[in-house]
Inverse folding.
């Protein structure tokens, strides 16, 4: 074997070794949490979380799901799960559709000041939530829906609108103008063109937008905490409350199981949707 | 995948400027577009939300920060009084300087690791899909779960320290998460874990778009691979790197969930960040004036990050 070839080989071995170490760095936290969630309470108390469970059991998962306590409420994260689903479905649907209509109007129709509107929307997409949180609370109190399911849905729509609109605008701006032209000659108006020409062509971008909003809204903590009200606390807020409850012995096996249950829906979306997920997060990375 | 993001308008990166970047892409031919009342009506809700919820709220917060408001809003102008008080508050000093420390560590770590990962995967490795999947999954997990997970792993009572001691090294100490002068470093560490996959994905798309001829020319010249990356390929992707930098900086200014779940700002206020400071003052201490002043500083920090970026991106687009 020549020296050059040996060098290349050493280089490849080094490359894969480094990659494997890096992948360990990324995966160990998840593996540790999974292994801890399968332990019994006794094991958790005596050993570090890095040791493997002696006799894996799903007891902690069952307890986390149906009877873990937040303060005096012991209904498990099931309560938060159902709340998150109730928040998620209408929020995603309305914000994606609102973004699609706005993006469509801004791309294929003559609107005075369209560029100014887009710049203003772009700035909105960057604003830290904290800057407008309190005025929003005031506004929703005045309207009379603060701390309710409609309130948190409206808030998710408001915070999703800028990124969704720009995402769809850029997609539609790339579609050939002849599509709209031809439809107009046939006598179709704004809404008919949207429903019968644009939407059927938007399947990919609709999937990307839906995934982006689904993971974003499911993972939200701050907005849910402030706008949802006690009866509609999303799963993330409930998880944090369970994990930071300091009364009695901390049951790490139950807490890790609750964390996994909370992380599971977006993880499933990620593993199932692969490329769409990556396209979504890179396109919408501006969102917090 | 695309040159996406805030205003990744025509970043020098070649990957076909695919449609789904949140960029102000150039208009398709202007002339054909027709006026329609329906189109204008369709935009009314968006414009109303934008002006009524965003810009009105921003103005309100900025104005309240210049009054003497405490529990309730007072609308009499009082100049910079709130800011004088804010910057005389020790907790704010900690939170604000933490933002810079956390930011520098997070940017160096995330950008460094992200670019390294992209370069490694660019070297035609087998099982690339598997490696990518492992590097990107943290992005799908919430900051709350991320923060709790790292809190457990780094906890001296159940995590790394306990584990190493069980291995027989009795005096081993690793308790940064409980040390007031170290906790912020653990936050940055978790931030890097969560975000570097994103930078990898963006940079890998850029690397894949680099002209093959450049690589061939470098090989003929006998330039080593690592040298080609550092001196030729990565400098070509500078606009993309700047985009990544801006993205991480935005995430830093906005950080909230991670610190709440991981250290809750502690021990004491040692790992506090502006985002948490504002929420605590608004909803726990009910001090609207101080919260608004702190929020306005956050807004200013965000503008300081994005306005040069937006300016140059838009200028380049119009050229």
């Amino acid at each position: 074997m020549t020296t050059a070839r040996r060098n290349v080989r050493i280089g490849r071995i080094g490359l894969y070794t480094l990659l494997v170490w890096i992948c360990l760095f990324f995966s160990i936290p998840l593996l540790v949490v999974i292994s801890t969630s399968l332990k019994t309470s006794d094991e958790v108390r005596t050993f570090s979380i890095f040791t493997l469970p002696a006799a894996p059991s799903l007891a902690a998962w069952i307890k986390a799901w149906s009877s873990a306590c937040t303060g005096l409420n012991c209904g498990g994260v099931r309560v938060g799960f159902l709340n998150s689903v109730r928040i998620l479905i209408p929020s995603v649907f309305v914000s994606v559709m609102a973004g699609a209509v706005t993006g469509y109007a801004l791309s294929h129709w003559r609107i005075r000041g369209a560029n100014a509107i887009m710049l203003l929307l772009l700035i909105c997409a960057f604003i830290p939530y904290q800057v407008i949180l309190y005025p929003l609370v005031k506004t929703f109190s005045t309207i009379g829906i603060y701390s309710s399911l409609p309130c948190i849905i409206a808030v998710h729509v408001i915070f999703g609108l800028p990124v969704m609109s720009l995402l769809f605008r850029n997609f539609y701006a790339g579609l050939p103008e002849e599509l709209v032209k031809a439809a107009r000659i046939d006598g179709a108006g704004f809404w008919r063109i949207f429903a019968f020409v644009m939407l059927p062509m938007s399947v990919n971008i609709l999937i990307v937008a839906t995934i982006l909003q689904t993971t974003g809204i499911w993972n939200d903590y701050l907005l849910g905490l402030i706008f949802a009200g006690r009866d509609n606390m999303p799963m993330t807020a409930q998880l944090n409350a369970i994990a930071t409850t300091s009364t009695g012995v901390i049951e790490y096996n139950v807490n890790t199981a609750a964390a996994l249950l909370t992380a599971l829906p977006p993880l499933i979306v990620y593993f199932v949707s692969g490329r769409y997920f990556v396209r979504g997060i890179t396109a919408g990375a501006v969102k917090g | 995948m695309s040159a996406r993001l805030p205003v990744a308008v025509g970043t020098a990166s070649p990957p076909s400027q695919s449609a789904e970047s949140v960029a102000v892409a150039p208009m398709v031919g202007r002339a054909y577009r027709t006026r329609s009342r329906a189109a204008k009506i369709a935009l009314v809700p968006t414009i109303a939300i934008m002006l009524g919820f965003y810009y009105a709220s921003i103005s309100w917060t900025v104005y309240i920060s210049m009054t003497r408001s405490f529990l309730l809003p007072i609308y009499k102008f009082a100049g910079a009084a709130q800011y004088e008080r804010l910057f005389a508050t020790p907790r704010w000093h900690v939170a604000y300087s933490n933002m810079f420390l956390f930011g520098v560590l997070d940017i160096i770590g995330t950008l460094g690791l992200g670019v390294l990962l992209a370069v490694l995967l660019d070297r035609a490795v087998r099982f690339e899909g598997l490696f990518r999947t492992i590097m990107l999954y943290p992005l799908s997990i919430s900051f709350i779960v991320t923060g709790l997970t790292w809190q457990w792993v780094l906890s001296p009572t159940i995590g790394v320290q306990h584990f190493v001691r069980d291995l027989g090294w009795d005096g081993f100490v690793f308790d940064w998460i409980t040390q007031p002068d170290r906790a912020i470093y653990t936050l940055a560490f978790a931030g890097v874990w969560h975000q570097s996959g994103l930078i990898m994905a963006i940079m890998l798309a850029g690397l894949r778009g680099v002209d093959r001829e450049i690589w061939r020319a470098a090989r003929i010249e006998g330039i080593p691979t690592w040298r080609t990356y550092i001196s030729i390929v990565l400098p070509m992707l500078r606009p993309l790197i700047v985009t990544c930098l801006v993205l991480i900086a935005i995430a830093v200014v906005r950080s909230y969930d991670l610190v709440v779940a991981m250290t809750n700002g502690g021990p004491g206020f040692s790992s506090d960040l502006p985002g948490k400071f504002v929420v605590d003052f608004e909803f726990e201490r009910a001090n609207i004036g101080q919260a608004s002043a702190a929020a306005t500083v956050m807004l200013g920090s965000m503008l300081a990050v994005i306005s040069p970026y937006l300016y140059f991106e838009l200028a380049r687009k119009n050229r």
About this structure: Chain B touches chain A through 106 residues (CB under 8 Å). Chain B has a mean pLDDT of 84. Chain B has one domain: 84-318.
